[in-house]
Amino acid sequence: xxxxxxxxxxxxxxxxxxxxxxxxxxxxxxxxxxxxxxxxxxxxxxxxxxxxxxxxxxxxxxxxxxxxxxxxxxxxxxxxxxxxxxxxxxxxxxxxxxxxxxxxxxxxxxxxxxxxxxxxxxxxxxxxxxxxxxxxxxxxxxxxxxxxxxxxxxxxxxxxxxxxxxxxxxxxxxxxxxxxxxxxxxxxxxxxxxxxxxxxxxxxxxxxxxxxxxxxxxxxxxxxxxxxxxxxxxxxxxxxxxxxxxxxxx
Length: 250
Prior knowledge:
The protein is of the alpha/beta class. It contains 9 helices and 9 strands. It is globular and about 55 Å long.
């Protein structure tokens, strides 16, 4: 494995193993591991993915997804093998304030203030980060040990999400869909160059496949057992835009 993978492994897997051991020694009553929905198989809008869907094998090429999955297995195996008091929550694509990097908020920054917006097929489950945070806190007292809970949000295609950003911004846009064959060709070229140059580009064949998925998930289990509240996507987008403006990022 390359050095980049090693860093992901150290942060996501080895650090989790260390935290489990420290928590065990401290006699904690409940350990909450925050995983990711990338550890599960999504579904279409009419049949979104659930906690029963396994890890998609082709995502082993994603350093982030694979190491998060390995860390999740570490935690769940500790429960099964030793009774370690743990459960797992797995958020989808987070939208909201305090996105300092920015991470998922880059999608909002891309659309905001832009007249011409390019988009692809596929979509995501967009979740209000504040409601996800409350569900994580609720998990400290609620939920069943050894279980996994998807903290999914509003399932929608990218085009619909971009239109909501435009509505919140109060500015009309022109939307142009990027043909799938063009995305595939571009991803293939960047993957080839990455292999030749010994570096990994942010956009490659694996990321293109992930980007084009109907990446939708169900939050029913978390609502029933953790008191998780459904995302109102316009509110989440509005809070995100306000925070970006207050912090000079828009």
